[in-house]
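I have been asked to look over a protein record a colleague put together. This is what I was given:
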Amino acid sequence: MHAMQYDITLPADYDMEIIRKRVATRGHLLDDFPGLGLKAYLMREREDGSPVDQYAPFYLWAEPAGMHSFLWGPGFQGIVNDFGRPVVQHWTVLAYDEGPASSATPRGATRQRRPLPDGVPPAEAVTAELTRHARESAAEGVVARALAVDPRHWELLTFTLWADTAPEPQPQPVRDENVVTAGAVDRFQVLHLSVPGRRHLPHGRSW
C-alpha cells in the first residue's frame, strides 16, 4: 500500500470557494477508480489558523497500478493544467487501521511528518511508532489512521481522518534520543472522501 499527497499552496488572496466548487463538481470522478483505497480531498485556510491557503489531496493506493494510472492519466493532468505540476510526495504504508468512528463521514484530517533520528536502528523507531499507531487509532473520533515512511528522507508520516473538525494538537511528552521526536501537526478540512477500495485495505501492520 502506498500513501501519496501533493500540496498546492495558493496566493493569499485566492478565492478558496473555487476549490470547494472544484471538489463538489469533480470529486465523484474517483469514487470508483480502480486500485484506489481512498482519497481525501483536503483544504486548509489562513482564516482557520493555517499558515497558508492550500489544496492538498491525500491518497491511499491499494495497488501501484492504480497510482500509475492516475499519475499518467487525465486525472493528474487536470491538476497540472490548472495549477502547474506539483511535487508528488509518496510513502510506503507501514500500518492502516479504522477507528471507533469508522462509519462516520470525516470532516477533518491531521498530518504529521517527523524525521527518524540519526543513529537509531530504523526497526526500533518503526516498532515504537507501530505501538503508538495502534493506541492512537483507537482514540475517540478517529475514522481511520495510516502510518507510513519515506526511506529516501527517513521521514515518518501519520495521517488521521476525524469524524469532526480536526482537533488541536496536544503537547507531546519529552522523549529520549532513541525514538522519533514530535513534529508539527497540519490540520485540514475534508471536502469529500472517495473510497472505492477502502473496505479492501488491510488493517494493522503491512508485513
In short: Helices lie at 17-26, 64-71, 74-83, 122-137. Residues 2-205 form a domain with the Alpha-Beta Plaits fold (CATH 3.30.70.100). The longest strand covers residues 89-98.
